[in-house]
Amino acid sequence: MFCTKCGNETPNDSHFCRTCGHGLTSGAAAAVAPAYVPEKRKRRALWILLPIGLLLVYWLSSHRTGTQPLQEVPKQQRIQTIANPALLIKATGNSYLRLDVPPGAGSVHLRGSFIARGGMDDDIEAYVFSDDEFMNWQNSHSAETLYTSGKVTVGKFNIDLPDSGTYYLVFDNTSSLFTQKTVQVNATLSYYQ
Description:
By secondary structure, the protein is α+β, with helices and mostly antiparallel strands. Helices cover 19% and strands 36% of the residues. It has a domain at 77-192: GOLD domain (Jelly Rolls, Sandwich). The chain has helices spanning 28-31, 39-62, 131-138; strands at residues 77-89, 94-101, 106-117, 125-130, 147-148, 154-161, 165-172, 181-192. Strands 1-8-3-6 form a four-stranded antiparallel beta sheet, with no helix packed on it. It has a four-stranded antiparallel beta sheet with strand order 2-7-4-5. The model has no long low-confidence stretch (mean pLDDT 86).
């Protein structure tokens, strides 16, 4: 006879299970083994079935057929207008505009023009720097420019910039000892994101 609670076999004349102490009933119902699987068998089955299941999932995921790769969302062009009524630059000084291009942007382009006015000579120099090179330039170290106008009164620029980052459009009046200048800028910064 088998215990109906824990499933252990007990002698036919027992009134209580020797393992769990559960009261046993006599008759045909107690003689039939219950549908009980001991805990050891459950664990052993789990350790056998788990690796097989993982291997099956791996195999199915690596051998998919008929699936299409994800389509990349096309990047959209973004355009920032840079226009100011008048940028005042003191004698022996400079002024700049900070241009921020967000991470992940590509095909970055700066296009526009400027005009300088003030004093007997309206000459000014314009530069475009990356963030690091601008810091070098501000600290009077050598710096690579992405654009240099030379001394001009009117200038145009059409520059492909390296991808995302911070750039500076600088107007330099350090060659003028006494005359301040007014610079008007009309430009666009465009990129795809």
